[in-house]
Each structure stands twice: as structure tokens, then as C-alpha cells.
Amino acid sequence: MGIDFSLYVITDERFLNISNIAESVEKAILGGATIIQYRAKKKNTKEMYEEALVVREITKRYNIPFIVNDRLDLALAVKADGVHVGQEDLPVNAIKAIVGNDFIVGLSTHNLNQVKRANEEMLADYIGFGPVFPTTTKENPDPVTGTDLLCKAVRISKIPVVATGGINEKNVDDVLKCKPAGVAVVRAAFEKGDPYKNVLKLKRKAKELNWKKL
User: Fold this and answer.
1) CA–CA gap between residue 2 and residue 132 (Å, rounded)
2) Annotated binding residues
3) pLDDT in tens, 75-125
4) Residues forming the annotated binding site for Mg(2+)?
5) Which NCBIfam families does this UniProt record tie to the protein (predicted)?
6) pLDDT of the residue at 211
7) Total domain count for the chain?
């Protein structure tokens, strides 16, 4: 598909709402985000729909792929470019049967067995792998993988790997050494300060390490 996963920015409902999500996402894109995922777990469906519509318009304006977390129905309702699912969500083969191959489907993986299974199925367009570091964005996170396991996952995966979980400006260097297709950030983009400057710092880090053509 030729998708640039390098700076994969995920929204966070703790810091974003209908009043600031458009401005924050736009700043993240201007700072260098190459793909945006809308993620909310505690909001009702109407709130999520309204916010996702706003994000869809921003991403469309900048021609940035837009992914919705978990909810295929919401992704289809707002005409997103894809959906990202976990191990216990609707299976990738079922999603592909509904939406076809032009719709991006990402799959979360947390260990090498899950990576190998994704390889066997060869249905996901990319896999998220982690959490690489401790994270507070999930109430019951999977065990921390660390960078050693991430590097192994990147080596064995036949599918683009996006590193995820607790990644920020201070530890991204170690993540990039594994040469994943991308790094996913949440708090590093939106928790404090200006999303434009936050994402730009990550982009500059990548350039310093000659990682990707950012």
C-alpha cells in the first residue's frame, strides 16, 4: 500500500476532546505525524463519532491516513482509511471480508508467537508491537516487551512493525535502532506542551539517527 507508518500518532481521550482535538491533531500533522489513529475507550459512541468526524476532516485536508481504534463500525461511519484491532477484537480475516483489501487493517501483537501467527495469516497491513516500555494509556496493559524483543519481532515479521507503548523523546533512540516501520506515540504527542513541537522533536531524533527519510 505504500503507507508511511514512521510517526504514528494516536489520540488520547484524557487530553483531547471535541473542543481541542482538531487543533491538536493538525499541529501533530504539521510537526511530522505520518498517520493518525483515533482512540477512545470511555466515551459514548456519539461522542466518539463526532470527534472522529473532526479528525477525519483534518487528516483528509493533509492527505494523512486515518485509522480508528477497535471500532470497525465507527471507522466505516466516518469513512476512515482503516481500523486497528487487538487480539480479542474482530479477527482480521472477518474485517477484510467486509471491507476488502484497500482498507487498512492493523493488528496489535505482544509476543513473538502472535507475530508468527500474523505472518502465517498475512492479512494485516501492519502490526503494532509492544508495549515496549511501561505505559499508562491502557488500564490493563500487556507485559512490557523491551527493545530486545522488539528487535526480534522486527527481524522475523513479514509485515511492517510499528513499535508502541511508552515511547517518548528520551527513549525513542533505542526503539529506532531496531528499525521498525514506525513508532507510535500517545502521551509524547499530547500530554504536555505543543503537539507540533512534541512531534517535531521525535522527527528530528529520527533524522539524527538517519532513520527513514523524514
Assistant:
1) 25
2) 37-41, 69-70, 89, 108, 135-138, 166
3) 999 999 999 999 999 999 999 999 998 999 999 999 999 999 999 999 999
4) 70, 89
5) thiE
6) 62
7) 1
